[in-house]
Amino acid sequence: MAQKEIVLEEDISGPGGEAEQAGYLVHKLIIAGKRGSPDRWHFRRGILVIIEYKKVGEHLSGNQVKRIKELREAGFTVHVCETHDEARRALKIGPYA
User: Fold this and answer.
1) Most buried of 42, 63, 85, 86 (most Cβ within 10 A)?
2) Concatenated DSSP letters for 60-81?
3) Domains (range + CATH), the chain
4) Confidence (pTM)
5) What does the alpha-carbon distance between residue 57 and residue 2 come to, in Å, rounded to a whole number?
6) Per residue in 9-55, pLDDT tens?
7) What does the DSSP assignment read for 13-70?
8) In angstroms, rounded to a whole number, what is the distance separating the alpha carbons of residues 36 and 63?
9) Calpha distance 56→4 (Å, rounded)
């Protein structure tokens, strides 16, 4: 059975998670009128890392595809992570520091 998305998100980006331990300021943003915004926004030393967490094999919703496309067209990188290691790699933490 695949791991639940919330477990992955909380382990890496939740309060006291690996991202905070690595010095990131982490926000879970809910943007009015913008359904499908990525799950977590990570800030550290002038760098922004945006992550949408998904359960292994789960697809992005139409709204998520739209929001990620908007952000990428605006010049931002948005990572879609299904595993702890993918998120660590995106954040350059742990063995990927």
Assistant:
1) 42
2) PPHHHHHHHHHHHHTT--EEEE
3) 5-96 (3.40.1350.10)
4) 0.93
5) 9
6) 999 999 999 999 999 999 999 889 999 999 999 999 999 999 999 99
7) HSTTSHHHHTT-EEE----TT-TT--SEEEEETTEEEEEEE--TTPPPPHHHHHHHHH
8) 5
9) 9
Q: What span, in angstroms and rounded, lies between the C-alpha atoms of 80 and 88?
A: 12
Pick the closest to residue 94 from 11, 2, 4, 7 (CA basis). Answer: 11
Contact of 29 with 78, CB cutoff 8 Å: no
Phi, psi dihedrals of residue 34, rounded to the nearest 5°: -130, 65
